[in-house]
Every structure is written in structure tokens, then in C-alpha cells.
């Protein structure tokens, strides 16, 4: 009896010690295990599709949900509730119109130019039910870019939302010359130059079309084309397959979403975050989404309280806009428990928690066309994802040394890339393989090949070049540092614009800041410059800013120039534009905004006059 008691005591002590060691040395072990088990479980489901050639698409999931929960609200838009049955039947009507009146057939590509509204989803699903692939067009693109988009994806039909018809009026002749038919999602009106759909929908049948029309035997069949912003050239049509759509639709579920959640989607549906993760994720859960035509910082929390929102999507600077709203007693009165998105800066993250409560913010890292995704399921502030040895068995990626000055990866004597050490910043590359394919861009093998790096570590290998500089710390957390091209060198050191932006964001009178580098004659590299918007009611304080950068930033990272702006130029998905700022430089004669320069003698940022500018240009002023 005594030996048994001793043995049990020893076992108990061993278990306690093991638990203590695990919590001290591997605090995220079980969280990682349960999360990866979910990922593996979902991956096995997709693998089963491939083995049986019986693919259950996101649309199939929606049709199944409409049969299972027909009366449940699917979309809430401007106070109106659209159930799963409503959207199913209307998309069926549209599908019949597409098949009969527009003569669309399985395999055709159709371009969609619509703002956020329920009919965006009905048109999208209706086209998919006919077996068409759909190209989502950015509603901000102009004539030249719009015509280029058709050439990229091969679309011969354009469907336009009622509020955007006037935007294509000037292009109708060019489109028709290219044999592209244009249809408007509106009722007939006098003098209309574009044929309409809604009058035909009214008389169309709402019975389901044969499932064979939408069926596919391969996960790698393209279903969508989603265009890049085109900030550095014409937009590129990223190929979105059923595989990518299904992976994105599992995002909310992987983070713990359930059928009882209400998802708030304020992002444009032409963007993959809103359409693939937001709408696709809502369908996967059988949940409800609140769709906004446009994001409104002033209405955000009112909407969340009114509709009982539990999950919201964010991207870029959206959370910072919310933090800049006037404080109220209702800031923490809501049911929101989860935020899913990307691009949340550390300083904004912390302020967001202080203002609105301990909402778990789950960063998702990955580009629309990329073959790698990081998910910060822990919710650790300032990180975009989480990795460990188990994750690396499933997804092959590497961080390699990158020469900022030469703007290229560092190679060894054999011409291969070199991996960085833990804690060091490197260029993120993701291996292209059968399990992690890269589908590239439609209409351009050259653009697709440009995103690949070959012979990276051995002859014949291929990696997707993310263009992002990242760091993996000793706990396995992945931190975003900067985009290649945004990081610049000054005084022999690399300046990461993201880090400088986060530091300047702590200054009380600064509401928004965009950091970039500008060229100066007779100087190597680029000097730091910060375009900023001031908080309402506050004024620029050059001395306070000087004291902050002296205290918080190394000499090479301190912005030499400041540009005060009324409005910051951003993309449709709230990403800051740098190109025009870099091009306009720091010449006070050419820039209408107020400019300031760092002055060590006066210990302040002082107005940048023509005299000071010419002294800098002539190399007479020490920088």
C-alpha cells in the first residue's frame, strides 16, 4: 500500500511539474494545438474534395444553408432584413435572366461593378449558379484602368450597379467596340443608354437551376478575379480558385465564430477581405452579417449596438478612425468580442483596447493572390501571426536576408538566398508546391512570373515573394516590419516606415501620419519625411515633436521633414498612398501644404522656408 501511495504521489508531483514547466516555457502550447487541429481538420475536408473530385463550393454551402435555415437573417442592410431564402430566390431569378436574356453560359467571365448592397451578393451568386466566373471591379477605377481590366480577365459582359451607371457612360462606345455587353441593375428609365435587369428579374422564375451548371470537379478551378489596387501600375487580376475561397471562408470559424454571431462588414465587397472572409465566413457559420454601403466611424458603434454585432472586420486604418471619434459613456457598451482583419498598428491596438474594451483582435496576414496565411489566434498585440514547428510542417516559408540599398535579397557564393536568425528582419518567401500553389494573375504570365523567385535555396525550387519584411521572435510570433520599397536607408541604416509611424502616432496632437523617404542632392539614401494630419482643436507643436523623436527614435530614423495635410490620400481599402508624396518631395515652392524641418540648434521643427530649402539643396546645411 505504501509503495502505491508513494508512486501516486510521485506521479502527481510529476504532472504538476510538467504543467508548471509547460506554462512557463511553452505558455501557448495547448492553444496552438487546438487551433492547428482545427486547421488540419478543415484541410482534411478540402483534401477529401480533391480525392473524390466532388467539390463542395462556398456557393454549395450557401444553397445548403438556405435549405436548412431559410428564415434566418443572412444580410441586414440599411435596416432591411434579407433572409437566406430571400437571397437564394433572388439569385435564382437573376440566374435565369443571365441564362435566358443575356445568353451567358458556363465558363463565361462576367465583370461586376457594384457598390456594397444585397444585390451585389444576388448577382454574384446568380452568375455562379450559371457557372460563370466573376471579376470584381474596384468602384474607384477610371477609364483606362477599367478597359484594361476586361483585357486581363477576358470578360465580355459588364454588370453595373444603379449608382455607378453614369461612371461608365463615357466608356460605352469603347466597350461596345470590344463587343462587351453592359447591363444595369436598375429598372428602365427614360433616355437610358444601358439595358436594365430588374424589369426582367420581376418576371423570372425563382426555381433552382440544375446543380450541374455550377458544379466543378477541381478545387483549382477559377471562380473569381479580384483586382489589386494598381497604385504602382495598372490593376492586376488575381486568380481566385475554389480552394482559396473555401480557405478564406473558414477564417471566422477558425477564430471561434459560431452560428449565433452577427458579423459587421464595412469594407468594400470587391475586396477579398469583405467578400471571401466576410461573406464567405458568414455563410460557413450560418450566421448573419450587417452590410454597410460605406464605412462610417460615427455610426460604427451605434450600428453594433442596434444589431447586436459580435464580430467586425477591419483593414488598414479603420480602427484608428474609431479611436479618433469623440469619447462617450457608451464606448464599452456593446457585444463585440472579436475583430478580424489586418494592418492594425500597435499603438492603435492599445488605444482601441483602452477605449472599447478587451475585444480580441485577430490579425490575418496574407495577400489576395498569395499562397501563405498567418493567423494571430492568440491575439497578442503587435503581431500578425503565430508560428511553431507544427505550423512549419504544414506551411513552408522562410525569412531571407535583404539588402535595402540594393533592393534585392542577399545571396551567398553559390547564388542562393540566406536565412535570417530568429529575431532578425528578413524578406518573407513562401514555397510554391502542390499543397501551397500560386495561381498568379489572369492574362499575364509575365506578371505571375515576376512574383516568383526561383532557385532560392536549391536549383529548381520556387517561392512566392510577398514583398514584406517580417520578423519572427523567439516565441514564434510573426511581426510585420515594412513593405519592400517603403523601408529606406539613411546614414547607413535601414529605416522602417511602419515603426516610425507607430512612434509618431503616440504624439498627442497627431491624428494620422504617413512616413516615407525623399531624395536629397549630395546625400546617399533617402531622408525621412512625415505627412501628418492634426487632431481637431490641436495645433502643431514643433518643440514637443522634437523632444519626442529625440527621446524615442535613433538619429537616422528621425523624420527630417514634416508636411501638414488636411486630408490623407488613401486607397478604397484605407491603405495610405505614398507615391505622390514621395514624388512631390519637400520643395516649399512646389508644395502648397505647410512644411517643417528638423532643427537641432533651435531644438524644434521649424518652418521650411525657400532659403532653408536652397541651402539644403546646395549642401550648405548640415543634416
From TrEMBL:
It is found in: Cell membrane. Gene3D superfamilies: 3.30.300.30, N-terminal domain of ligase-like. Its EC number is 6.2.1.3. The lineage of its organism: Eukaryota, Metazoa, Chordata, Craniata, Vertebrata. Residues 502-575 form the AMP-binding enzyme C-terminal domain. Belongs to the ATP-dependent AMP-binding enzyme family. It catalyses: a long-chain fatty acid + ATP + CoA = a long-chain fatty acyl-CoA + AMP + diphosphate; a very long-chain fatty acid + ATP + CoA = a very long-chain fatty acyl-CoA + AMP + diphosphate; tetracosanoate + ATP + CoA = tetracosanoyl-CoA + AMP + diphosphate. It comes from Betta splendens (Siamese fighting fish). GO terms for biological process: long-chain fatty acid import into cell. It is a multi-pass membrane protein. Its main location: membrane. One of its GO terms (cellular component) is plasma membrane. Keywords: Cell membrane, Fatty acid metabolism, Ligase, Lipid metabolism, Lipid transport, Membrane, Nucleotide-binding, Transmembrane, Transmembrane helix, Transport. SUPFAM superfamilies: Acetyl-CoA synthetase-like (SSF56801). This is long-chain-fatty-acid--CoA ligase. One of its GO terms (molecular function) is nucleotide binding. The keyword Disulfide bond does not apply.
Amino acid at each position: 500500500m505504501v509503495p502505491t501511495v508513494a508512486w501516486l504521489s510521485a506521479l502527481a508531483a510529476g504532472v504538476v511539474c510538467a504543467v508548471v514547466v509547460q506554462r512557463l516555457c511553452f505558455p501557448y502550447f495547448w492553444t496552438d494545438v487546438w487551433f492547428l487541429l482545427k486547421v488540419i481538420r478543415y484541410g482534411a475536408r478540402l483534401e477529401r474534395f480533391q480525392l473524390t473530385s466532388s467539390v463542395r463550393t462556398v456557393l454549395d454551402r450557401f444553397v445548403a444553408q438556405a435549405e436548412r435555415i431559410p428564415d434566418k437573417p443572412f444580410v441586414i442592410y440599411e435596416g432591411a432584413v434579407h433572409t437566406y431564402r430571400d437571397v437564394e430566390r433572388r439569385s435564382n431569378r437573376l440566374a435565369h435572366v443571365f441564362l435566358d436574356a443575356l445568353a451567358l453560359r458556363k465558363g463565361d467571365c462576367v465583370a461586376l461593378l457594384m457598390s456594397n448592397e444585397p444585390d451585389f451578393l444576388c448577382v454574384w451568386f446568380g452568375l455562379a449558379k450559371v457557372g460563370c466566373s466573376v471579376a470584381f471591379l474596384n468602384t474607384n477605377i477610371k477609364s483606362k484602368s477599367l478597359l484594361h481590366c476586361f483585357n486581363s480577365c477576358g470578360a465580355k459582359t459588364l454588370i453595373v450597379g444603379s449608382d455607378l451607371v453614369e461612371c461608365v457612360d463615357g466608356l460605352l462606345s469603347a466597350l461596345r467596340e470590344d463587343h462587351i455587353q453592359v447591363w444595369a441593375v436598375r429598372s428602365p428609365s427614360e433616355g437610358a443608354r444601358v439595358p436594365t435587369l430588374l424589369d426582367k428579374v420581376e418576371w423570372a422564375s425563382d426555381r433552382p437551376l440544375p446543380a450541374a451548371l455550377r458544379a466543378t470537379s477541381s478545387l483549382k478551378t477559377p471562380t473569381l478575379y479580384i483586382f489589386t489596387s494598381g497604385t504602382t501600375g495598372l490593376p492586376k487580376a488575381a486568380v481566385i480558385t475554389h480552394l482559396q475561397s473555401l480557405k478564406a471562408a473558414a477564417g471566422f470559424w477558425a477564430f471561434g465564430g459560431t452560428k449565433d454571431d452577427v458579423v459587421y462588414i464595412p469594407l468594400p465587397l470587391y475586396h477579398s477581405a469583405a467578400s471571401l472572409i466576410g461573406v464567405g465566413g458568414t455563410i460557413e457559420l450560418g450566421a448573419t452579417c450587417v452590410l454597410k454601403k460605406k464605412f462610417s466611424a460615427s455610426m460604427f458603434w451605434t450600428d453594433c449596438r442596434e444589431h447586436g454585432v459580435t464580430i467586425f472586420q477591419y483593414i488598414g486604418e479603420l480602427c484608428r478612425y474609431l479611436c479618433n471619434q469623440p469619447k462617450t459613456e457608451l464606448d464599452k457598451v456593446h457585444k463585440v468580442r472579436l475583430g478580424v482583419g489586418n494592418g492594425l498598428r500597435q499603438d492603435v491596438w492599445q488605444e482601441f483596447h483602452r477605449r472599447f474594451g478587451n475585444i480580441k483582435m485577430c490579425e490575418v496576414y496574407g495577400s489576395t493572390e498569395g499562397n501563405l496565411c498567418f493567423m494571430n489566434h492568440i491575439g497578442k498585440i503587435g503581431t500578425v501571426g503565430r508560428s511553431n514547428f507544427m505550423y512549419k510542417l504544414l506551411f513552408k516559408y522562410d525569412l531571407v536576408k535583404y539588402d535595402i540599398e540594393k533592393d534585392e535579397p542577399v545571396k551567398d557564393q553559390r547564388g542562393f538566398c540566406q536565412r535570417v536568425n530568429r529575431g532578425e528582419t528578413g524578406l518573407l518567401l513562401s514555397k510554391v508546391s502542390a499543397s501551397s500553389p500560386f495561381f498568379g494573375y489572369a492574362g499575364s504570365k509575365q506578371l505571375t512570373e515576376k512574383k516568383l523567385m526561383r532557385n532560392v535555396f536549391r536549383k529548381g525550387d520556387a517561392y512566392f515573394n510577398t514583398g514584406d519584411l517580417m520578423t519572427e521572435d523567439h516565441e514564434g510570433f510573426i511581426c510585420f516590419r515594412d513593405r519592400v520599397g517603403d523601408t529606406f536607408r539613411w546614414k547607413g541604416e535601414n529605416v522602417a516606415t511602419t515603426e516610425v509611424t507607430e512612434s509618431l502616432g503616440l504624439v498627442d496632437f497627431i491624428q494620422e501620419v504617413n512616413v516615407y523617404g525623399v531624395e536629397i542632392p549630395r546625400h546617399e539614401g533617402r531622408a525621412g519625411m512625415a505627412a501628418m494630419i492634426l487632431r481637431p482643436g490641436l495645433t502643431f507643436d514643433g518643440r514637443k515633436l522634437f523632444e519626442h523623436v529625440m527621446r524615442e527614435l535613433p538619429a537616422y530614423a528621425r523624420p527630417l521633414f514634416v508636411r501638414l495635410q488636411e486630408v490623407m490620400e488613401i486607397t478604397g481599402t484605407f491603405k495610405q498612398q505614398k507615391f505622390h508624396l514621395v514624388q512631390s518631395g519637400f520643395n516649399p515652392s512646389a508644395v502648397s501644404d505647410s512644411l517643417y524641418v528638423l532643427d537641432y540648434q533651435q531644438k524644434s521643427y521649424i518652418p521650411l522656408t525657400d532659403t532653408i530649402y536652397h541651402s539644403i539643396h546646395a549642401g550648405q546645411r548640415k543634416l
